[in-house]
Amino acid sequence: MKPKVTMIAWNQNDNYVVTAVNNHLLKVWNSSTGQLLHDLVGHADEVFVLETHPFDSRIMLSAGHDGNIFIWDITKGTKTKHYFNMIEGQGHGAVFDCKFSPDGQHFACTDSHGHLLIFGFGCSRPYEKIPDQMFFHTDYRPLIRDSNNYVLDEQTQQAPHLMPPPFLVDVDGNPHPTKYQRLVPGRENCADEHLIPQLGYVATSDGEVVEQVIGQQTVDQDEPGLEPSILDGMIRQLQLEQDQRNGADQESAPSGPQNGEGTPRRG
């Protein structure tokens, strides 16, 4: 197998360079002379995550598709800590990304099964208050492209990043209580009635009837026999108010060159 570098990272003070190679080795190099100092052995699959500690120049984190997370002392070429991401009943989960906190006391990782793993010092009790499953109700709503090839939300015909803040739901689409809804940026000061999405029932393609947040439905609410969506109406009202504010700002701002570029507006 021809060796290939899959990832590269400098340490905190730039004295060392660490490379991940597709033969599952990590190599530590002197950044000034190019001399190979250490081969770090431990991974059993390719590594695409290398993160340096924010202030300790000795520490480097690596994680890979084998589910292994290592903390290395790259000056000595030794393992400091090791974690294997085993998921009960599903085997191991490949680790896709990791980041240190600014104070270097914690780091967080995400895996191929949608889990967020948080490591660090201290008590984990504050994290126990958060639901195990948190998704935005718009996560799996379909997208379309307009004539300029811009991505739009199919329901609102709006660029996704300009849509009102979504609701937090569990893996089955059931909304979380209002105290969790206020964790979503933009919903911190909303009244309680604006934090309770309406539940509805929708038939899937195979005829099964499932319960979900009404805002996830993409069917035409004008079809006969369908109740209008309170949540969708709320989203449309918020979007209309936002569009009106943006329109007022544009009218008061000096006109610039019209080159046809930029984020598309709702039709």
Quick structural overview:
This is BRWD1 protein. With 267 residues, this protein is mainly beta. Strands 1-2-3-4 form a 4-stranded antiparallel β-sheet, with no helix packed on it.
Chart the SSEs and their pairings.
Elements: E1 5-10, E2 16-21, E3 26-30, E4 36-40, E5 47-52, E6 59-64, E7 68-73, E8 78-84, E9 86-87, E10 91-92, E11 95-100, E12 106-111, E13 116-120, E14 135-136, E15 143-145, E16 151-153, E17 168-169, H1 178-181, E18 199-203, E19 209-213, H2 230-252
Antiparallel strand pairs: 1-2, 2-3, 3-4, 5-6, 6-7, 7-8, 9-10, 11-12, 12-13, 14-17, 15-16, 18-19
Fill in the keyword field for this structure:
Methylamine Dehydrogenase, Chain H; four-stranded antiparallel beta sheet; elongated; mainly beta; 19 strands
Explained architecture:
With 267 residues, the chain is mainly beta. The model is unreliable at 215-229 and 256-267 (pLDDT under 50). Strands 1-2-3-4 form a four-stranded antiparallel β-sheet, with no helix packed on it. A four-stranded antiparallel β-sheet has the order 5-6-7-8, with no helix packed on it. Strands 11-12-13 form a three-stranded antiparallel β-sheet, with no helix packed on it. Helix content is 10%, strand content 33%. The longest helix has 23 residues, at 230-252. The protein is built from two helices and 19 strands. The chain has two domains: 5-126, YVTN repeat-like/Quinoprotein amine dehydrogenase (Methylamine Dehydrogenase, Chain H, 7 Propeller); 135-213, no CATH class. It is elongated and about 60 Å long.
